[in-house]
Amino acid sequence: MACVDYDRKTVTHKLLSSPPEKCKSLYIFGDVGRGKSMLMALFYEACPIKQKRRLHFNMFMLEVHAFIHEWRQKYNTDAISAMAKKIRASALVLCLDEFHVTDIADAMILERLFRKLFELGLIVVITSNRHPDDLYQGGLQREQFLNFIKLLQKDSKIIKLVAIEDYRLMHLHALEATYYFPLDAHASEFVQQSYNEFTNFAAIQSGVLQVMGRKVVLTAVHGDIALTSFNELCVQPLGSADYLEIAREFSTLIMAEIPKLTAEKRNEAKRFITLIDALYEHKVKLICTAEVPVQELYTEGDGAFEFKRTVSRLIEMQSENYLESKHTEHL
Length: 331
Description:
Elements: H1 2-8, H2 11-16, E1 25-29, H3 36-46, E2 52-56, H4 57-74, H5 79-90, E3 93-97, H6 104-119, E4 123-128, H7 142-155, E5 156-160, H8 175-178, E6 179-180, H9 187-199, E7 207-211, E8 214-218, E9 220-222, E10 225-229, H10 230-235, H11 240-249, E11 252-258, H12 266-281, E12 285-290, H13 304-317, H14 320-323
Parallel strand pairs: 1-4, 1-5, 2-3, 3-4, 6-12, 10-11, 11-12
Antiparallel strand pairs: 7-8, 9-10
Helix pairs in contact: 4-5, 5-6, 6-7, 11-12, 12-13
């Protein structure tokens, strides 16, 4: 709070007094289901600083790339510095959930962006499944990313959250109600019955979402209920913006025919991870059919480590506590 109070002082007061010690940012990491998101929620609610913002890392990077693109269309100046100033103008504390780096476009700008943010006095609170040293493992041009890791470790306090149990597994008893496997003769009947129950036997009418000039086609839409398939959402070349729009628009998503994913389907697995992150953050209810149990969906291939978080979230999303939570259109 000393940093905040000093920041609010007049220029004269600042000239006549010494600035307080610089506030460090915070990076919390640990295995899935250990309570990182819960701690972040508690911190954000209790934090007395009004200039604060919390969002998922995927959403944050979407905003960053959109701003940079728009800025470069209009001006011939440093877009990243402009972005940093825009962020700092509206927030003193920035909370980022589920920090992970798999995209080279993200990796190449993070060091410059965060260096500017730290210089401007922004305090960043981050949760992640990985230690900073393990971020962007095996990524293209990772040697250029190492400067960001050094910056993060210098300006942040690194804390590992340790717990013996994955608390989400406590709600396994609800799993069978909304996650159906295998893809046998009854799977299609389960999907149709679920749609009928949620829509009072509404007709199957396809729906289209407009996202950044693109069309995202869904098998059926009725109010805030959507019927779709793995092929529609994860085989098609969709991305974070599409999934976030789906998560905002629908409170319940019925998804058919999730296959067992192999190393050859790593792109589909990556899209599925991003989709589940968006649904989870917005508390969308997921009813689905799959070829195998959730723990066996994707065990080998690029991104298999990150998929453990998805498995944990899928389990939690079948729990009574999650199913009773209210859909969040805007974070």
